[in-house]
């Protein structure tokens, strides 16, 4: 069927596209006061749900600074929740155009050196999902589930003395690998890997410090 497109045809096509798009007609930036629901599930590397982990929704305002010629992020407003037995979480956010960047932080409440704090395992940017006004359910797979498991042991008082000393002196490793009974704690920027056998420090292996771990990094031992 020939003929040229009229304005009416264009509007009809736009309406259909809006209905078929994820989120339907609501897939547009919300207005102040609108309720935005963000929900999802946290799983480990085996696809199993991760219950009892704290999830923080961090909302902040980011703007470009002419003086420093870079984006500056203001202080973040944090809203916490916890995953349930199925690893599910849910936030109800009242939209405020002041906030233009959103991040999910996954972690646990940890007391270190007698001071309570929050150990972040991973972060995920959800700014685009929130700006759409109707975010689809998220499925977040923890890439560092091994560190989360160790943190739970630490919180329950089951970490070894050597593990607690390394954590106290150096903090979180940038990578944790396990091979049978041996566990390696990688500190790339310090150029050291601590190998522990059944929780006892076996050896400290030096290497050239690097800023970021390479993909497929292998244990130098």
Write down the Rg: 23 Å
The largest sheet is: 4 strands, antiparallel
Q: pLDDT below 50 for ≥5 consecutive residues: which ranges?
A: 1-26, 214-221
The share of residues in extended strands comes to: 35-45%
Order of helices and strands: HEEEEEEEEHEHHEEEE
Described by the principal axes of the CA atoms, the overall outline is globular
Mean pLDDT: 83
In whole angstroms, how far apart are the ends? 71 Å
Structural class: alpha+beta
Total number of beta strands = 13
List the helices and strands and how they pair.
Layout: H1 7-20, E1 35-43, E2 54-60, E3 62-65, E4 70-73, E5 77-82, E6 88-94, E7 101-112, E8 115-125, H2 127-131, E9 138-141, H3 145-155, H4 161-170, E10 175-179, E11 182-187, E12 192-197, E13 200-206
Parallel strand pairs: 1-9
Antiparallel strand pairs: 1-6, 2-5, 2-7, 3-4, 7-8, 10-11, 11-12, 12-13
Pick out its properties.
221 residues; alpha+beta; 4-stranded antiparallel sheet; 18% helix; disordered N terminus
Describe the structure.
With 221 residues, the protein is α+β, with helices and mostly antiparallel strands. Helix content is 18%, strand content 40%. The protein contains four helices and 13 strands. It has helices at 7-20, 127-131, 145-155, 161-170, and strands spanning 35-43, 54-60, 62-65, 70-73, 77-82, 88-94, 101-112, 115-125, 138-141, 175-179, 182-187, 192-197, 200-206. It has a four-stranded antiparallel β-sheet. Strand 7 (101-112) and strand 8 form a beta hairpin. The longest helix has 14 residues, at 7-20. Mean pLDDT is 83; it is low at 1-26 and 214-221.
